[in-house]
Every structure is written in structure tokens, then in C-alpha cells.
Amino acid sequence: MRISEREPAVFLRALFDRAVEVADPMRSLAGFLPTKPAGRVVVVGAGKASARMAEAVEAVWGPCEGLVITRYGYARPCRGIEIIEAAHPVPDEAGAAATARMLDLVAGLGEGDFVLALISGGASALLVAPVEGVTLAEKQAVNAALLACGAPIDRMNTVRKHLSRVKGGQLAAAAWPAQMLALMISDVPGDDPAFIGSGPTVGDRSTVADAQAVLAQWGVAVPDSVTAALGRVSGVVPPGDARLGRVENVIYAAPAQSLTAAEEMAAQALPGIDVRLLGDALEGEAREVAVSQATLAMEVAAGLRAGDAPVLLLSGGELTVTRRGDGVGGPNAEFCLALAISLHGHPQVYAIACDTDGVDGAAEVAGAVVVPDTLLRAAATGMDAAAALAANDAHRFFDAIGDQVVTGPTLTNVNDFRALLILPPE
């Protein structure tokens, strides 16, 4: 594909599709599977990519015993592994019942047994087993409050771990003394396995005091039962615990691989293009990062002359949104809206920001694209960009002008993908 043959926004969408494609478990997981062990093999897992991962496992190993929990609409056909759908990002009864069954499945395994755990982003909500004294409804309320407070994902997961009987190494502990291999797709900045899906197979050094500090720092109000639970010693398993001694955790797909694939595709389509990687682990408020990247893009544009090669700014990571209004939005769409406002119709800059799992926030929308006439077309429909940003209503804004990116279930999750294309002046 040559950029001269298609609109720049279509080019950017093609880069996003490529980033998703290389993270598809059916393309990438098989190389990390060992020969199927002799004896009893149990496959468990959770996350938005976990059903696709299970499908990939059975493509190599054949039918397997097991249970995997994924988001509604993300199930895949498996011949032996049972796939259960549950709610994300706020957990539900289906997830709680499935988690209880998973814990029962691994209980009582022996040293000669083998557990394959398939973990991807989304497991934090899909694996739900509240600690004693906390109800599912109370856990749901805490989860919703955490999602709205703007805290980074690792801080949210610290709280989730200490309110759970399955996170923070507790799934692995439940399967001990069986041998366990955990294959993971990373969706967290820095690719720390302890924070992928709240680390159900990974030891964690955090304490209940750390969880209390997160709630205090971000002003998250919680029920008395949660306060009481965080006043007790939790079941989170520390690194070095003997119950983790037979566990191997492997991250086999991560944001960096998808950004590299997009970079390679861009270089092939546009020989000489100047690709600048801004990092695969960016964090922060979506609107603030948007202002920063818009400023950088305009500085780059100011230095280009007619005939120069285009510049492509790529970044990944996980941005956050602090809820200020009652609109419908997500970090990628909010990034795009704030970016469009900051660019103010700059004629040389085009952009895309999408979540690789196809879900931006809680909406069935991956993200959005920004083009030079974004604000003009929105104004023609009666949409006020500043008002939409103030209300966290980015999805409705981009829906009004037809610039949402809707993929449906992508069956993978390596977090956010952002690309800004800066063209030379005509």
C-alpha cells in the first residue's frame, strides 16, 4: 500500500490492524508451547484474549481438560476446554461462579500434574472471588469507583489483589504442588507479569497498607466491609513462597512487538518515512498526553519542507480518564478529542488511537481517528468539542462525525495503540 493511493486515515487504520494482527494468539502462541506433558493436564485462564489462547492451545495439543473465562462476546470454539463468558470491566455473578469452579478444578492436583494458565488483560475483572466478608456487589462498587478515579492500572490492581482470593499468586498457590506454566499477553506498561490480570500466578510484595494508600490517594470511597477486609492480612502470596516454586511465568506477546510490526509496515509502504517510537509504556491522563503529543506533532510539522519524508509518531501504554462528566468515553477516544482540540485543524497532522482489544473504556468501540477537518465537521453537526471533552463524551462526539473505529472482538489485548502521521506541506 502506498500513502498516495489512500487517505492518511486509512493508512493509519491499516497500521492499527497490523498491530492487532501480530498479537493474535493463533499466530503467536504455538511457538511458546512445550510438548504436551504426560499425565493429567489442566488448562485454566482468564482475560479478553484467553478464549483465543485456548483455541490456539488445542490447535497444537488437541482437546484438553480445562476452563477459561472471557468477556461476553469473546468466546471461541474449543473441543475440550470449557469457555465461560462473564462481565468486563465490572465483574458479575457469572465470573464469580466460573472462578469458584476454576479453583475447585485445580484443587487437589499432585506433583505429577501440569497446569497451563492463559492470562491476558481483563482477567482482573473476570477472575472474581471476593475475600471473606466482602460481597460481590461491594466488589463491583469498588471496581467501578477505581475505574472512574483515574488511577493507573497497577495501582487499581493492588487494591483488587488484596480484596481477592485468586489474584496476587493465589491461583498458582491453589494449584500447588502441580507444575504450572503461565503464558501471558501483556497489556500493562512495563510488562510486569505481576500486574497482568492482577497476577494470579505471580507473587506480589504489596501489602494491605499499599491498597489502603491507593484508595486514600485517589479519594475512592469504599463500604465498611472493604475497609475491614483491608485491615486484615490478605492471602496475596509473596515472591519466594514455596507454593510458587513450580511456576514459570512467560510473557509471549507485548505492546512493543505490535509497535514494531506497525513500524515495519509503515517503512515498507513509505520508504524513507521517519518513524519515531515514543515508548510502549506511556501512562497518564489521556487529555494531558494528547496535548503533549499534539505539541510535538506541530513542532515536527513546522520543521518539514515540501518533498521531505513524512514523520510517524508511535506509542503504546495505558492512559487513564478521570470521570468529570456523565458522557460515554474511553481513554483512546478522549485522547483523540483532546488531540483534535489542541491541533485545531492543523493541515499536516492525522492521528489514530485505539485499544487493541476493541474496547475503549466500557464501550464496544476501539477508538477514533483525527483528521484536519475533525472540528469543522463536528461543528456542522452541532457538536461542541470542548463541551464533549468536559463531559467525557468522546465516543458520542466521534460517532456524530463517523470517525469511530469499531472492530468488534479482536480476541487479543496488548493495550493502546497511538499513531500520529505528520505530512510535509504541499
Helix and strand pattern: HHEHEEHEHHHHEHHEHEHEHEEHHHEE
Which structural category do the helix and sheet elements fall into?
alpha/beta
How many domains? 2
Parts with pLDDT < 50 across at least 5 consecutive residues: none
Widest sheet: strand ordering = 3-2-1-4-5-6
Mean pLDDT: 95
| Name of the level-1 CATH class of the largest domain | Alpha Beta
Residues in helices, as a percent range: 25-40%
Number of helices: 16
Strand portion, in percent? 15-25%
Shape: globular
CATH fold name of the largest domain, please? Rossmann fold
Tell me the span between the first and last alpha carbons: 21 Å
- Please tell me how large the radius of gyration is: 22 Å
According to DSSP, the number of beta strands is 12
Largest pleated sheet: 6 strands, parallel
Task: Note down, in words, how this protein is organized.
The protein has two domains: 3-21 and 256-422, MOFRL domain (glycerate kinase, domain 1, 3-Layer(aba) Sandwich); 33-253, 3-Layer(aba) Sandwich (Rossmann fold), CATH 3.40.50. The chain is 38% helix and 16% strand. The protein contains 16 helices and twelve strands. Strands 3-2-1-4-5-6 form a six-stranded parallel β-sheet. 51% of the residues are buried.
